[in-house]
């Protein structure tokens, strides 16, 4: 689904009578920051701006948080250490000791998604992780890394991931097909889970914001937005957690392909 | 006239796709409810299984998100 398609369709729907004041999906339109020319890969858009801000925030948190290295940590240092310890424990619990070699990649993924999600929650900002184009790149990177890693570390034995040796022999070919399909659907569900959750949450907030224009239900809509915002803060974190932990699960399959 | 029927089909289809969200809600509730039932029987084992809980919730929820995506595709991409 191209973003430009959404933009033109939005105009068509906005012209109808009896709709909301604004379209709930208007917030996801990619626009260039300077001028309004065509968008190339090097054009600075609102997406790239908020992605860069997410990276800057992570950079600031980790560099400022660890520069002092006080015995009694400051608040920033506590947050940095907490995030590090949280992801470190997750990788160790799910993939085991040998998975810790890949901890930097997983930590980077977690911090980027969590910061992109939280920055997207700031009013009038842009939720970069709501675009499936963004999450698909993250998920495809994980998928390719894990697949290549599985073959490099295990060779042809990696294919035993699809050959369920604990099942009866007659069932194994059928199970192999199912396992193969589920393996290739991984990047799809991995990316759409994150993108869809964030997009749906932001769209729901905008729908309730549209109801605020009707005076009779305005107070109710304000209360509803507040409640949903709280839920979205939770969802932002949980989705980053889920994305990371699924990466760990896929990594474990690559390290130990035997069922 | 033909266009009207086609767009009516789009809206009906998008509405029907909403059933998927409800089904995903049942699934997520099932996972969380069973986890809680098990956790209350054996609280000492609960902490080590929260990762499994979230993975289970994520798998159930993803299918609901797929139905949301189908609705969006019907509304804007068809």
UniProtKB/TrEMBL annotation, chain A:
One GO MF annotation is:
proton-transporting ATP synthase activity, rotational mechanism
Q: Does the keyword Signal apply?
A: no
Main subcellular localisation:
membrane
Please provide one cellular component term from the Gene Ontology annotations of this protein: proton-transporting ATP synthase complex
Instruction: Sum up the protein's function in the record's words.
Output: Key component of the proton channel; it plays a direct role in the translocation of protons across the membrane.
Task: Name the protein family.
Answer: Belongs to the ATPase A chain family.
Q: What is this protein called?
A: ATP synthase subunit a
Q: Which organism is it from?
A: Roseisalinus antarcticus
Automatic annotation (TrEMBL), chain B:
Q: Which residues bear the site annotation Reversibly protonated during proton transport? A: 61
Give the matching Pfam families.
Answer: ATP-synt_C (PF00137)
Indicate yes or no for the key word Transferase.
no
Lipid bilayer topology: Multi-pass membrane protein
* Superkingdom of origin organism: Bacteria
Q: Which UniProt keywords apply?
A: ATP synthesis, Cell membrane, CF(0), Hydrogen ion transport, Ion transport, Lipid-binding, Membrane, Transmembrane, Transmembrane helix, Transport
Entry-linked InterPro entries: ATP_synth_F0_csu, ATP_synth_F0_csu_sf, ATPase_proteolipid_c-like_dom, F/V-ATP_Csub_sf
Ranges that cross the membrane: 12-33, 53-77
Give the record's family classification. Belongs to the ATPase C chain family.
Q: Know the name of this protein?
A: ATP synthase subunit c
Species, as recorded? Roseisalinus antarcticus
């Amino acid at each position: 689904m191209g973003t430009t398609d959404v933009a033109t369709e939005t105009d068509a729907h906005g012209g109808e009578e009896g709709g909301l004041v604004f379209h709930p999906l208007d917030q996801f339109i990619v626009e260039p920051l300077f001028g309004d020319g065509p968008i190339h890969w090097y054009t600075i858009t609102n997406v790239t701006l908020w992605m860069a801000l997410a990276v800057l925030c992570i950079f600031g948190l980790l560099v400022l948080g660890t520069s002092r290295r006080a015995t009694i940590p400051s608040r920033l240092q506590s947050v940095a250490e907490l995030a590090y310890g949280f992801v470190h424990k997750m990788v160790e619990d799910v993939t085991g000791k040998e998975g810790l070699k890949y901890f930097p990649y997983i930590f980077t993924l977690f911090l980027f998604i969590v910061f992109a999600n939280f920055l997207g929650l700031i009013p009038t900002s842009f939720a970069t992780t709501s675009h499936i184009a963004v999450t698909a790149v993250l998920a495809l990177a994980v998928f390719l890394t894990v697949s290549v890693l599985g073959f490099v570390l295990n060779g042809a034995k990696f294919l035993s991931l699809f050959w369920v040796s604990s099942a009866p022999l007659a069932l194994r070919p059928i199970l192999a097909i199912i396992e193969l399909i589920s393996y290739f659907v991984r990047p799809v569900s991995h990316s759409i889970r994150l993108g869809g959750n964030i997009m749906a949450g932001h769209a729901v907030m905008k729908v309730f914001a549209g109801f605020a224009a009707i005076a009779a239900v305005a107070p109710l809509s304000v209360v509803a937005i507040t409640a949903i915002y709280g839920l979205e803060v939770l969802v932002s974190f949980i989705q980053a957690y889920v994305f990371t932990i699924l990466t760990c699960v896929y990594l474990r399959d690559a390290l130990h392909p035997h069922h | 006239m033909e266009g009207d029927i086609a767009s009516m089909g789009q809206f009906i289809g998008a509405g029907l796709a909403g059933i998927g969200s409800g089904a995903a809600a049942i699934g997520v509730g099932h996972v969380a409810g069973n986890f809680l039932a098990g956790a209350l029987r054996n609280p000492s084992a609960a902490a080590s299984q929260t990762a499994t809980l979230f993975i289970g919730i994520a798998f159930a929820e993803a299918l609901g998100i797929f139905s949301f995506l189908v609705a969006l595709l019907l509304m804007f991409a068809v």
